[in-house]
Design a protein that fits this description.
The termini are far apart. Helices cover about 30% and strands about 20% of the residues. It is globular. It folds into two domains: about 20-245, P-loop containing nucleotide triphosphate hydrolases (Rossmann fold); about 265-315, Arc Repressor Mutant, subunit A (Orthogonal Bundle). The protein has helices spanning about 45-60, 85-95, 120-130, 155-170, 195-200, 265-275, 280-290, 295-305; strands spanning about 35-40, 75-80, 105-110, 135-140, 175-180, 205-210, 215-220, 230-235, 245, 310, 315. The strands form two sheets. The chain has a nine-stranded mixed beta sheet. The protein is α/β, with parallel strands linked by helices. The chain contains eight helices and eleven strands.
Length: about 325
């Protein structure tokens, strides 16, 4: 064995520390790790995956509560939905959030099939990620993405190992949508259908259960405390448009629109200026936050009225 054959090492004290806010891609929900959205059929699993992808792509908070710390491109593949239906769902969520769909940096894989157990498709997916550099990848559902035995630990570990390597190589958050069995378990992750390797693999689990017309979201994290379960509902306007998930304690969805922009975008603008440590132009802010230009203009004007930011020839900055 030559010195060149040795594995690279470093002293523990010399390992880089992640800034507190960099530990989360979506605050208290998902980091740049891997995980599963699990649930029984018709429990809004696909809706939650799309809500997460749109939040990251637009910089808008998930469920109007959980901030996105590192917005950027998102990539999704919905194997069970026709492309027009995928577009309709995305457009509805964007309409509800006042996001300009043409400016949304969300990419949809349009291939009729993707097999994660196929070396060829693994290479194609990796190449797509290299080209788009997404922050988040949503694959929905796992059962349509392979032809192996989900109960086989050996076969599943190879597939999950590929996804883990993909996540580490490209610093991308990966969300798998997967079915749960009807068996009640102490930990919902243990009810994921198939090999126990699935539960062991996840850094984050988002488990959806239903009682009547009520949805409950339970979050589990490998390296962080889990928040209390959340009650959700899938709602739309009276004309059946703008379908989206929201927290159950949110006001009922009506045709009335708020007179002022949502306060979460105010916080995102101020946080972007604080991080930049220099004046930013409106175009720079929009590029960083990936938000609708009209919404951003409303927020800037509101913050100026509150004297929370100032405008100069150099751009916008904190007072």
């Amino acid at each position: 064995m030559t010195p060149g054959d040795a594995l690279p090492t470093t002293r523990a004290a010399d390992l880089a520390s992640a800034p507190e806010d960099a530990r989360w891609l979506i605050d208290r929900v998902w980091s740049s790790g891997v995980g599963i959205i699990g649930g029984l059929p018709k429990s809004a699993k696909s809706w939650l995956g799309l809500e997460m992808a749109i939040s990251v792509a637009s910089g808008t908070p998930l469920l109007a509560r959980f901030q996105v710390h590192d917005p950027g491109p998102s990539l999704v593949y919905l194997a069970e939905d026709a492309l027009p239906q995928v577009r309709e769902r995305i457009a509805g969520i964007c309409a509800h959030r006042r996001i300009d769909l043409p400016s949304l940096n969300l990419h949809v894989i349009t291939s009729p099939a993707v097999r994660l157990d196929s070396l060829g498709d693994q290479k194609r997916l990796a190449t797509t990620i290299e080209r788009l550099a997404p922050k988040l990848l949503v694959l929905d559902p796992l059962v349509r993405l392979h032809r192996i035995d989900e109960n086989s630990s050996g076969e599943m570990s190879n597939l999950l190992g590929y996804l883990r390597e993909l996540q580490r190589r490209h610093s991308i958050a990966i969300v798998l949508v997967h079915h749960m069995s009807k068996r009640v378990r102490a930990h919902l992750g243990q009810a994921l259908r198939g090999s126990g390797d699935l539960h062991a693999w996840v850094d984050h689990g988002a488990y959806l259960t239903r009682s009547g017309d009520k949805l409950r979201l339970t979050l589990e994290h490998r390296a962080a405390a889990s928040p209390e379960p959340l009650e959700l509902r899938l709602v739309s306007r009276r004309d059946d448009t703008e379908a989206h998930l929201e927290l159950a304690e949110s006001p009922a969805n009506t045709d009335d629109r708020p007179a002022t922009p949502a306060p979460e975008l105010h916080d995102l603008v101020l946080d972007a200026l604080r991080r930049a440590q220099r004046p930013l132009s409106r175009a720079e802010l929009r590029a960083r936050l990936r938000v609708n230009n009209n919404r951003l203009g409303d927020v800037i004007a509101d913050l100026e009225r509150q004297a929370r930011l100032v405008r100069s020839d150099a751009g916008l900055s904190l007072p």
